[in-house]
Amino acid sequence: MVEKFENMSEKQVKKENFLKKYSFLSETSHNRFIGCYDSKFTVRLVLPNFPDTEGSSVCAFHGIIPLDVQSMLKTGDSTEMLDNMLQYLDKYQETSTERVDLNVDSVLKIFKQLETVKHDHGCKIFSNSDVSKIKLSGFKAIDANFLEMERISDGDFQVTSHSLPDLGSSIELFKWHASPEAHAAAFVQILDQLDEFYSNLHTLDELCHVVEPVDIDTRTTWRIIKFNQKVFLKITLHPLQPASVVVAFLGPTAEIEYLRELYNTKLEDWDPESDVYTNLLRIFEIMAFPMRIEPGGLDDEGSQCGICMSYRDDRNKIPIISCDNEKCSLIFHIGCLKEWFMSLKDSRTFFAISVGTCPYCKQKVSSSFDELLNNLELNRTNPT
């Protein structure tokens, strides 16, 4: 325990030195940083294992243009990684096509299109002074829905970023060079097709205890909900095929085997006229899923990890793994239990399955840590 506190103190000192060296950064929450570098670049860092870069994500923007800085994570040290990224930003020169000088008629034509877009779709419009970059947001009265584009010729633009989930080949629509009005119309058309998808996710958010993801956005296609004290369901929806649902089961072996068999047996009775929530209630023969006592409120303090005694760990993960002993009520973070197994002399790993014993009841526990971590993976790409 003393060693753990010493490690925590050492990490805190390193973080203070890190923030002192990179004074443009601020820590917004645990191991999450944001800052404006050289008054030109927005930098965001998520370093769950600070100062190590394992499991980290970084992004940088020049104005509203995202830059490719993920390769900087190849190094294992946060300071070295950020030094490399700042050197890249110092040398950065925009590689977009040469700016086109617009005459008055062209400018008026673009602004007229933007007024039409605003009138037809009720969105907000932002642009820089030379109308070379445009951002449209607030489609369907949802601020998170946005479309960013950059001018590549006199009146044509190319989409550089958007708020849509991964749609596979459908996103090829945005490979065009087209007018802002055409891009906006295509974007709204796709949003219309996603109404049922977003409605299903919203119902899960409102009527279930959603434990992951912590920060819900318009791109995330899955939710992990609480089924009972030890069992969780990961529900993944296909954006364009709302009835195409994948359910993964996380929990004690006996319970999840029973639930998986029940799900597979009754899946043929899925009612396409009902929403995902209603179908799942019918399949599992329950009246409702557990809900937060206060939606959007505090974390579930009754489910702390039996090893570190906290609810969310340094990677913002919750306790989600337990042993198969029905009389043992404890639940653990994946990382904490993995470390516990590593400390045991008699723990073993066969293929991807790790085998050890519960820290309390000593019953044998087997788990695929890598598979569980993959099910809880929060990193998401920014599709364009």
From TrEMBL:
Record-given protein name: RING-type domain-containing protein
Key words of the record: Metal-binding, Zinc, Zinc-finger
RING-type domain sequence ranges: 305-362
A Pfam family reported for this protein in Swiss-Prot or TrEMBL: FANCL_d3
SMART domains for the chain: FANCL_C
Gene3D superfamilies: RWD domain-like, Zinc/RING finger domain, C3HC4 (zinc finger)
Recorded superkingdom: Eukaryota
